[in-house]
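This follows on from our talk about sequence and fold. Can you supply me with one protein entry, sequence and fold together? Could you add the entry underneath, on a fresh line?
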Amino acid sequence: MTAINTISSVNDLVIKFANVNGTGSASANNMFAKAVFRMGLSVSPKNIFPSNIQGLPTWYEVRVNDKGYIGRRGGIDIMVCVNPQSMAKDIQEVSAGGYFIYDNTKPLDLRLVRNDITFIGLPLTRICLEEYSDDRQRQLFKNVIYVGALAALINIEFDVLTGLIADQFEGKEKLVAPNIHAMELGFQYAQNHFSCPLSISLQRRDNRGDKILIDGNTACGLGAVYGGATMAGWYPITPSTSVVEGYEKYCKRLRIDPGTGKKNYAIVQAEDELAAIGMVIGASWNGARAFTATSGPGISLMSEFLGLAYFAEIPTVLIDVQRAGPSTGMPTRTQQSDIMACAYASHGDTKHVLVFPSTPKECFEMTAQAFDLAEQLQTPVIMLTDLDLGMNDTMSDPLDWDDSREYKRGKVFTSEDLESMSERFGRYLDVDGDGIPYRTYPGTHPTKGSFFTRGTSRDEYAVYTEDGSEYVKNMERLLHKWETAKGYVPAAEVVLAQGGSSVGVLHFGTSRDATMEAIDYLREEGMEVDSCRIRAFPFTQEIEDFIASHQTLFIVEQNRDAQMRSLLVNDCEIDPKRLIPVLNYDGMPVTAKFIQGKIVDHIDRAKVTPLRADSATNTSVNH
């Protein structure tokens, strides 16, 4: 038999767990990822779960490396399979030279065997049958046992795992010893039956620094608290539900009056998405900072109300955690496919401010900033994250807040302002020439500053009219306000290769990590590439400058129809032939290898040589 050329690596691997949904595997797999993190290594876990409650296959993919990469790499080095349903597919997914670890209580079907990977059998079911009498314990501890075996096989520090168990069951100390015992069962079996560690192994490093593991939805919830939100109206939908759950969790700690014990916040679960956004608009009109969270189907239902908020100029904050559509689509898979639906939500001529975070830290910061933007611009602000960022733990810089920071409430007349006015108050009057009028909160003054809030056409004083010239004046002012917004929204992040390049890549949101890693791979091949990360719509000037200064341009998106490309073409009047789409839309986060391959293929076909830029451009650079 030909010897297998096994993969040999230290701190550079992708391991994937194949489980059955509803068997408690998520807790054990998450413990594995946290153990690697506590060993000072860069780790990137991805939970790949079905939309049903129990029974279907589920996977958990963890990437580990020494270079700080946290995007998906592509390829599986070690597969841990405890699900017979998916075993045939799981075996085929392992990279040549990799390892397939499985429950060998029952013999492996020889038809599934490959001769280019190593099979490692652990009798997980047999160990559980011998050790436990309770069926639920057998099911749960099987997961803990294979984590213990992995500790021996790839050199995870055992005391790190026991420390995690102690932390997880704090306050439930009687559960600590049984879980550690199950871990020891797996560890000892692997030590006694295999040469440990394998050729793929881990070693402690100090690469983590002060980074934390947190999911984007939790960061959004905390950002809403710090951003001053006192009201959330919502309707549950995957994958956004945990945004409001996170908000509630932190409100219970940070929004309780210390003197009375009363809650200084309101969370209302509405009967549907229409009611949820309606409540948010009403609360915001009344002077509160309010928000909702949803996903694609919710955006569809909220569109008419978003048009009202745009036209009536009511601050509104909406967090869209995108998933694969259309219709129900794949509710537990990720995409960036709501861009056009959000940018132009509602009928008629509308343009909505969008922000695109790439990290949990940006989820926190941009959520807080969204409330400032919404009130400064008096318009809906939609933050587009996605399932990958929202629901997966991600290595992130710590979340910081300046306690001296003051909220930017925008143009609001006080009672004193109104009292001192000699002229007539015009709710939709452009006093300052920036397209943004002044508003008042209800009840500010007993006789001055009142107005009708309406979705019908009106003049500058909020008086109903169907005069076409008044309508045009109002719509042109809204367009002028849109131009003003460019000075408020987050700027793009431009990174130039040393000396610059004639080839550029645009990207946004969760495509960032894979894109930047792909650029590193391209550099290793001798190909210099510049990058521009879009962080907001309307598009800021540095984006147009970046496009104008590059001969060959790629745009990375996680949707089928290149929606960001369409938005750039439409809003910046760019020749669509100039933007080459790199599209991934299978519901899984895009990989660096995929992006690298698409760019190389196109350049090879076009015979384009990425040249250094002849001269510096006006593009702003953020390293």
